[in-house]
Design a protein that fits this description.
12 helices, six-stranded mixed β-sheet, 282 residues, 9 strands
Length: 282
């Protein structure tokens, strides 16, 4: 069974991307990201596709990173960085090993969490259920967001001893800085009404109206000249992504310290083992 369902409506010029790991709350692991990259390549190069819709199968939009995989990845990353610090490997070998650990991707500007923003075509996030961590980041990577009354959003990473990926790069560009700080520091659950209040989503709808409303918006966009629509997106994305690469470079050293800490290994492991974490502040 594909972990990413890609369906094109040629007559109405839109495609639907459905994350399809319902048993794992559509966590971003397994083969999903690879399948998404293949689908996006087709979508971006299909001149008949003008708008994309992103949603999830089951009761979740996406629970974000697969924490079991993340715990293992953080441990391996820390081992590589330690070997580099001790002089056991050089910078080139360190980069090669980290690239392998990340699966050749990552969460920076060229990684999987910026793929919808980097597409020249507009994307609508139809948030059908919980969207936390990387799930929230995937939603805010889209251009328009609508949310079900049964869904919620949030950046839960600090509960797991890790840092948000693109979340704290993009969130302050979408909502007031104080709201972004509240979301990032408290790891609170953000209700649909609160998402609407702070401008994180465009609209709140009943569950059975979510996809029909997303399709309605997609059709409204597709009625317009594709080149003009892409021009609007390009202009808006230029502002949203201004200095984003520098932002990632700045946070890289911070994330290396946090990501190499004992707490960054303990948090995901404790969550996977369904127990309270034992923070060591190191």
């Amino acid at each position: 069974m594909p972990e990413l369902l890609y369906e094109k409506n040629d007559a109405e010029h839109y495609a639907t991307f459905t994350m399809n790991r319902p048993d794992r709350l559509n966590a971003m692991g397994g083969s999903m990201n690879e399948e998404l990259q293949i689908a996006l390549h087709d979508f971006n190069n299909d001149r008949n596709m003008w708008v994309g819709i992103v949603t999830g199968n089951g009761r979740a939009f996406s629970a974000g990173a697969d924490l079991r995989e993340m715990s293992d990845r953080n441990t391996r990353t820390a081992e590589v960085n330690e070997a580099y610090d001790k002089g056991e490997i050089d910078a080139e070998e360190r980069a090669r090993r980290l690239f392998q650990i990340s699966g050749g991707g990552g969460v920076g500007p060229t990684g999987s969490l910026f793929q919808f923003a980097r597409s020249p075509k507009p994307f609508i996030a139809a948030i059908n259920g919980l969207a936390v961590g990387g799930g929230t980041e995937r939603a805010i990577d889209c251009d328009i967001r609508i949310i079900s009354t049964e869904a919620y959003m949030g950046l839960f990473e600090v509960k797991r001893g890790i840092m948000p990926g693109s979340g704290m790069h993009l969130m302050p560009r979408l909502v007031p800085v104080g709201e972004a700080m509240y979301i990032g520091l408290t790891a609170d659950r953000i209700s649909p009404a609160e998402c609407l209040r702070i401008g994180l989503v465009h609209e709140v709808v009943e569950p059975d109206q979510l996809l029909p409303r997303a399709v309605e918006i997609a059709k409204m966009i597709a009625e317009n000249a594709p080149i003009a629509v892409q021009g609007v997106k390009a202009t808006a994305q230029f502002w949203r992504n201004l200095f984003i690469d520098e932002h990632y470079q700045f946070s890289g050293w911070v994330n290396r310290i946090v990501g190499g800490s004992e707490d960054s290994k303990e948090g995901p492991l404790a969550f996977a083992e369904k127990r309270a974490p034992n923070w060591q502040n190191r």
